[in-house]
Amino acid sequence: MDHHLFISNSDDMRKYFIHLLKFLVFAMIFYVAFIIMSGRLLPNFLRQNLLYTLGGNGHTHSRLRDVKNTNSVDILCIGSSRAYRGFDIRIYKSAGFSSFNLGTSNQTPVQSLFLLKKYLSQLRPQTIIFEVNPDIFSNDGVESAIDIISNESPDINLLKMARQTKNIKVWNTLIYSFFNKWTGIEDNFSESASKKGQTYNKGGYVSIENQRYDRTKGTSYYCKLNKIQLTAFEEICSLSASKDIQLLLIQSPVTSSVYHTCTENEHFDRLMSQKAAYFNFNKLIHLTDTLHFSDGQHLNQLGVAALNKEIIKLGPFRHKTFE
Asked: Does domain 60-152+188-313 have CATH number 3.30.70.260?
């Protein structure tokens, strides 16, 4: 091969890669700018791939603000809305336990793991109560990731959590949220304690008073266990064991019609019981749909009181004795 031709080809390739790199940098800058401008200027229906839920339906902003000022609790609760609407910190306080409820809307094990890695050393709980159920273990985690990203301070672990979802909506929300947090645009944001019939109680619990069963909501499960969620769950179990924290797995009750729509119930029970102390309250407590539930998957305050009374009776909290 001609030496000069080889040099010429090498120069051409070098120029090609330089131009390609310049284009990619420009495209990235343009894309980030486009996401930010879309979030600031376009209405929700025109930005379907950018969902930003500051505050959110589950008072996530208030909860993540509170947790930053909380230290050393006896009990830490994690999980989805069935956790933050099901584990009443006021009941545990009356029984002599300090607690914090770190549940968030549709929180899957991937997001639970992120929150534990971020706050476990700060909260130093003796016991973790983890609300587990087949529906949330079958979830892709996109809604929960968007909810947390919209309300949490940015860091490298948030980036890692977003990567696990592998969804463009999550990445777009991450870009927009990072911009808002770093520029201080949201510094004066304040979330109302009461909205849409739900009241936030300091410490993470959301109460719904006097709401009875709505047959049109929470009517079915999606039950096809997600391998990514199962892997995150395994890591949560290992993390708890490494910190010598008692892990208590609780499946909060749902209405009987909803519970029996899931074909994974027995398989799920076996998986959970192999990993930690596990209690499926669909089998351990008898509740009435029209009396104890607000919808197919959530207890009302009467149901919450009944559930937490039974949890305390289990005596899982080795550092204290409840009389």
From this structure: no
Q: Using 50, 70 and 90 to split pLDDT, how confident is the model at 318?
A: very low
Residues 320-323: contacts with CB within 8 Å, 24+ apart?
320/74, 320/96, 320/97, 322/95, 322/96
Judged against a pLDDT cut of 60, whether residue 134 lies above it is answered with yes
* pLDDT single digits (tens) 221-270: 888 999 999 999 999 999 999 999 999 999 999 999 899 999 999 999 99
Q: Where are the domains of the chain?
A: 3-46, 60-152+188-313
Report the predicted TM-score, pTM, of the whole model to 2 decimal places: 0.89
Mean pLDDT in residue range 75-99 = 96
